[in-house]
Amino acid sequence: MNVLVLNAGSATVKFQVVVTDADRIAADQDAKLLRGQIERIGGEAVITVRGADGVNRKRTAQLRDMRSAVEWLVGFITDPESGTGLSSRAELQAVGHRVVHGGEQFRRSSLIDEAVLRGIEENVELAPLHNPHNLRGIDAARAALGSGVPQVAVFDTAFHQTLPEHAYLYAIPYPLYRRHKIRRYGFHGTSHRSIAYRFRKLTGRERADVRIVTLHLGNGCSACAIRAGESIDTSMGFTPLEGLVMGTRAGDIDAALLDYIAAKEGLSLTQVEALLNTQSGLLGLSGLTNDMRDLLLEAREMQDRRARLAIEIFCYRVRKYVGSYLAVLGGADAVVFAGGIGENAPEVRARIAEGLAWAGLHLDEAANARMVGGHEGCISTPASTLQAWVVPTDEELLIARDTYRVVTGITAPG
Ligand code: ADP
Question: Are strands 2-8 and 13-19 parallel, antiparallel or unpaired?
Fold first, then answer.
């Protein structure tokens, strides 16, 4: 099945064209025909595409809204120049959408019909910066391909719907949960699921046997405690702001700080929330950048104190979460690193693992140094009782596979 995967944001849409089916899933032979993104939708949009040859190509087009962007994209995919080999729209057989918030309604990926659309709309209140754009992506795909082409919503929150009550409730008055659905939802679910599945595949373990802590460390960062294939706790909460230190997000803070910062800095609560989301984390601490690559360089070559501090606080927070999830799981088989930082920064992985020797984790320095740029494998010594792995996440692949499964009703593992 040829699946178009879409991740629609405010002025961007990321896309992939993936060929998948039960045999391909079983053999790990899904084919990626094309991937890329369209940015600055609303004016002179910039389109970056990468074909099967791995080469990035840029172009521009006047795209006034999401509908015209997806219309352009579908035209491009079926043009010989794209190199996909697809020549008509009818060859795009299904569309899989990343949808950020599925609230409590959506525990799994769902075929989009009127009821599902209503469900996504009902959750706009919980994710005002994301769900409306995801809805526009769905509308645009329907306009470009017709309502006969099945579309599937894959929710960022769905994987965490297995969290037990004691993990998802905040210790605030219970009626707030009942009245307003205030609780921890968790995000990055597709990524944690993808990492956990790949880990099982690489280690040949059964779903029921696996206890792992997965770490998605990218611009956004989150940790997840997974037992028998299910998320039992995760670090992001009601919004993606909670938990680990991120590129620009503070992660865990004392809630009383909102009012205090507002009073001291003469800001509204909305402005303080924006400060915690966009001016904090690695960027706020270092005063330089949210980019871990640059921070590592500054710390190494310029001995920049605040860059070093930012990295240290980042790693310390991750280690704290790993420790608490080891307690939650009653011990684990492995800590699994993923995301731009997790997949590419041996130094950061080493700093996180440094304090975990008590738990039986000893890094193999050479393996750790080797595991960058998309390589996957074990990075702990054979004697480690708690292993460490690097397993690149592939959310788009999981969205494509889920789309295939939901559309055909065939249950293929993975
Ligand atoms: P997103 O969460 O937006 O998908 P990514 O998963 O691509 O982001 O992660 C982006 C982060 O990964 C940035 O902080 C970037 O600096 C970091 N990163 C990417 N490559 C490297 C590298 N070689 N060394 C250290 N950090 C890296």
Answer: antiparallel
pLDDT digits (tens, 9 = 90+) for 298-345: 999 999 999 999 999 999 999 999 999 999 999 999 999 999 999 999
CA of 341 to the centre of ligand 1 (A): 5
Tell me, yes or no, whether 17 lies in a domain: yes
Domain range for 251 = 204-390
217 CA from centroid of ligand 1 (Å): 8
**In the predicted model, what is the mean pLDDT of residues 36-53?**
94
CA dihedral 32, 36, 42, 45 (to 10 degrees): -130
Confirm whether 165 is domain-assigned. no
Indicate the residue among 95, 122, 155 that finishes a domain.
155
Catalytic annotation present for 30: no
Q: Which atom of ligand 1 is nearest to the CA of 372?
A: 23
By C-alpha distance, which of 394, 400, 403 is closest to 196?
Answer: 394
Ligand 1 atom closest to Cα of 247?
Answer: 14
Find the catalytic residue in 30, 156, 233, 394: 156
Claim to verify: residue 116 and residue 208 sit in the same structural domain: no
Q: Can you tell me the mean pLDDT for 113-127?
A: 95
What pLDDT band is residue 54 in, cutting at 50, 70 and 90? confident
The conformation of residue 317, written as its DSSP 8-state character, comes to H
C-beta of residue 21 within 8 angstroms of C-beta of residue 5: no
**In a domain? residue 170:** no
CATH code of the domain containing 252: 3.30.420.40
Residues 262 and 344 in one domain: yes
Our count of domains for the chain comes to 2
Per-residue pLDDT at 212: 98
Q: Which mutation among 191, 277, 344 tests ligand 1's pocket best, with the greatest number of atoms within 8 A of CB?
A: 344
Whether the per-residue pLDDT at 412 is higher than 90: the answer is no
Q: Tell me the C-alpha distance between 270 and 183, whole Å.
A: 20
Q: Is residue 397 part of a domain?
A: no
